[in-house]
Amino acid sequence: MDWLIDLMNWFAGKPADGGMGYHALKSCMRYDTPWIVITVGLDLAVAAGYVLIARHWHVNQKALRNPRARRALGRMKNIFIFCGICGYAFIPIKMFWPAWRLYDCFMAVLVYYTWRYALDSRNLSVVYGELNRSDELAADLEKSREESRRKTYFLNAVSHDLRTPLNGLSLQVDLAALTLDAGDATAAKKALVEARQSVEATARLVSHFLEIAHLDWDQDKFAPTTFGLTETVRRAAERSADDAAAKGLTLTVTGDDGLGVHTDQLKLERIVGQLVSNGVKFTVRGGVQVDVRLAGSDLTIDVTDTGVGISPADQARMFEEFFQGHNAARDHSRGVGLGLAVAKRLADQLKMELRVASEPGKGSRFSLVIGCGRIVESGNGNGIDGSAGGDVAVAARSAVAGAGNHGASYEPQGESAPFITGRG
Amino acid sequence: MSLKGSRPRLLLVEDDRATYTALRGILNLRGWDVRVATSISDARDALAERVDAVILDLMLPDGAGEGLIADVRARFPEIPLAITTGLGEGERIDAVERMGVTAVLRKPITLAELLKVIGGA
After folding, report:
1. Do the beta carbons of residue A170 and residue B108 sit within 8 Å?
2. Percentage of chain A surpassing pLDDT 90?
3. What ipTM was estimated for this complex?
4. Looking at the predicted structure, is the pLDDT value of residue A326 above 60?
5. Most buried of the four, A14, A48, A76, B18, by CB within 10 Å?
6. Does A171 sit within 8 Å of B19, measured CB to CB?
7. What is the distance between the alpha carbons of residues B79 and A141, in angstroms, rounded to a whole number?
8. For residue A302, what pLDDT band results from cuts at 50, 70 and 90?
9. A390: Cβ–Cβ under 8 A, 6 or more apart, which residues?
């Protein structure tokens, strides 16, 4: 059993020649070089393994989106950093600890497991990836549930709002027949006029539904071009000129003719058209004013009316489909509550902001905020129709002309004279 | 149902103009004295007087028509109460049918079924 005693003595650092005392690492440095290399190598290997694991935790922690998992990984990372530091700290301890060879046996095992874990832990990124994916799936599921709820609501509203004018139509036809039987041609004619209005309301409703559905199908289609903004706004506003004139309302557009933007022209025109048409529909006295202006660094189109206004509670629901804040009697000749919903959806598609500010009884202002990144020109160049030279006279179908200003500088108010005015 | 010699009174609670003008015309021809209410609050005012039948739309600008059913039944337990609605089948309609109404008519309603519910006058 001498060999065992020798071996234990050797581990304990007792000199091989049987001399007295135990040898700490610092005493062996001159004559036991291979062991010194091994012992330092083991320490460094363990520490490097921990550093590798800590790095792995750190990288995955940054990529994880689940906050609880991030926190847990962050703590694990700190533990491994601590272990790595301890690995280096043992080098000086061994200098004075005679049983350092025994400790090295333990270190060899530790190196094996540390590195195996460090290499294996790379595969854990699959788990973290799945964790991220399950979070994404949960968010997608919630989104699609919300979409499903919205569609159910939409379908119910479609069903209800289609049945309502059809009901009116059917009953008005019954009334016409009954009054004709009774020999009252005037009452019959009145009923038929009502019936025709119900038909028109139904047709308008179907068009709106198709438009909304079309927006859903076409939401990725985006055809940006560079065009003159004020000219487009003017053209959109012009479509409501007849309605404004019929109601005796003014319809005014102000803006710089030389201002160009880069976006989907047709969609922008539809948004402005809807806002102006909405303003005209709900204004009894006064008029609707459209201003194209630079507000800070943003280009803004304001559509301001002197109409009935919108209560703060209604403002929150203004852009929901079928919401009719102004039309409590649900008179379908005044629309079905889809115009502003369409405008909002189009604005969302163009990544523009549609705001509303209003005071009941005084009027409303709808502002379409176009990001400054879309402003491409402030002059007459680049193919934008700046209508160079002098005052411009642009007549609306219903009337008077005015002047627009040009050039590189933009004057939001004052100098830009109105150039569409409709009076009935 | 009504006092002898006077026309029976019908309360029509409906917010769609084309519908209420048509129903008012038809029911007038059929001998009813029709009072139109376009909101729940109007209808509550109208219920202060005697009515012999009620036609009630479920979706009104100031709320749901269900709230009015109990008011009508509390005051006039026996009169015909017809509910008209553009809503399809569903829990809401089932609940209304259990509230003591005479019938639930889905829009577009036919004159024959309406007259059958409120009774000829």
Report:
1. yes
2. 18
3. 0.90
4. no
5. B18
6. yes
7. 49
8. very high
9. none
End-to-end CA distance of chain A: 122
Question: What pLDDT shows up at residue A260?
Answer: 83
Structure tokens at A242: 């007849």
Question: Which residues are A375's β-sheet partners?
Answer: A261
| A-to-B residue pairs, Cβ atoms closer than 8 angstroms | 91
Preceding omega of B8 cis (within 30 degrees of 0): no
| Among the partner residues A178, A179, A198, nearest to B18 by beta-carbon distance | A198
The answer to whether residues A110 and A118 touch, using CB atoms and an 8 Å cutoff, is no
Please give, rounded to a whole number of angstroms, the shortest distance from the CA of A157 to a CA of chain B: 8
Cβ pair A328:B61 closer than 8 A: yes
pLDDT band (50, 70, 90) for residue A325: low
- How many of the other CB atoms lie within 10 Å of CB of B52? 22
> The tokens of B114 are what?
């309406």
Residues of B within an 8 Å Cβ radius of A: 15-19, 21-23, 25-26, 29, 38-39, 59, 61-62, 84-88, 106-111
| Residue showing tokens 């934008």 | A384
Kindly list the residues from chain A whose CB atom is less than 8 angstroms away from the CB atom of residue B39: 328
Question: Which of B23, B62, B88 lies nearest to residue A171, judging by beta carbons?
Answer: B23
Pick the residue of B12, B14, B19 with the most A CBs within 10 A to test the interface with A by mutation. Answer: B19
Residue ranges of alpha helices (H) inside A121-228 are: 125-181, 185-217
Q: Which residue of B has its CA nearest to A170?
A: B108
CB contact under 8 A, A166 and B87: no
Bridge-based pairing of strands B33-37 and B9-13 is: parallel
**Confidence (pLDDT) at A424:** 30
Residues A314 and A311: their CA atoms lie apart, in Å, by: 5
Q: What is the pTM of this model?
A: 0.52
Do the chains contact at B86 and A159, CB–CB below 8 Å?
yes
φ, ψ dihedrals at A303, nearest 5°:
-115, 105
Structure tokens at A353: 């902001």
Q: CA of B68 to nearest chain A CA: how many angstroms apart?
A: 18
- Closest among A268, A362, A271, A262 to A311, alpha carbons compared: A362
Nearest to B115 by CA among A160, A199, A173, A174: A174
